[in-house]
Amino acid sequence: MKPRQHGRRRRARLDPEAELNLTAFLNLMVVLLPFLLTTAVFSRLAVIGVDVPTPRPQAEQPPPPPPQVPLENLALRLEADGVVVRSGAATLAVIPRGPDGAYDTRRLGALLADLSARMPTQDQVDVFARPDTPYAELVGVMDAASFKADGGALFADVRLGEIRP
């Protein structure tokens, strides 16, 4: 008779097969993946082309151009004593009130026509007024900024703002 092997085969059949539990791993990936994607630093390489001019002899160099104020963010500020025309932080002109006490829209229109000719791509002007500015004066200044004396267009986009005391 054969010696008995004390149930070794029988125990192997009774043990279930070992399976991998992926649930915990997948839960970890669901949490980590968005976190890693949102905290990743995406870097860009930028190439800036720089053309350095070759120096000319001193005799050939033209004289430097006169400094000009760049015309950007054109603004009309309606003050008590007149209209202040500004471009950025620079004051271009101050047009005092006329002899009748109203804003001088003829001079303002002529100045704005000149500025419009100097910067043809500029199509907006900001008009700043105090809350107590009479409506008729405000509309007169906005019309002077929108239309030339001959009826042509000046600035298509006239925006209104408030001067806070």
How would you describe what is shown here?
- By secondary structure, the protein is an alpha/beta fold.
- It has a domain at 74-162.
- It has 4 helices and 5 strands, in the order H-H-E-E-E-H-E-H-E.
- The protein has a 5-stranded mixed sheet with strand order 3-2-1-4-5, with helices on one face.
- The longest helix is centred in the N-terminal third of the chain and has 17 residues, at 23-39.
- The radius of gyration is 38 Å and the shape is elongated.
- The N and C termini lie far apart (115 Å).
Short note summarizing the structure:
This protein has 165 residues and is α/β, with parallel strands linked by helices. Helices cover 30% and strands 18% of the residues.
- Helical content band: 25-40%
Give the strand content: 15-25%
Q: What structural class do the secondary elements suggest?
A: alpha/beta
Beta strands, count = 5
Could you state the order of secondary-structure elements as H and E?
HHEEEHEHE
The global form is elongated
Strands of the widest sheet, in order across it, are 3-2-1-4-5
What's the tally of helices?
4
Question: What oligomeric assembly is this protein in?
Answer: single chain
Q: Please give the radius of gyration in angstroms.
A: 38 Å
**Could you name the ranges where pLDDT drops below 50 across 5 or more consecutive residues?**
none
Question: Mean of residue pLDDT?
Answer: 77
- Give the termini distance in whole angstroms: 115 Å
Biggest beta sheet attributes: 5 strands, mixed
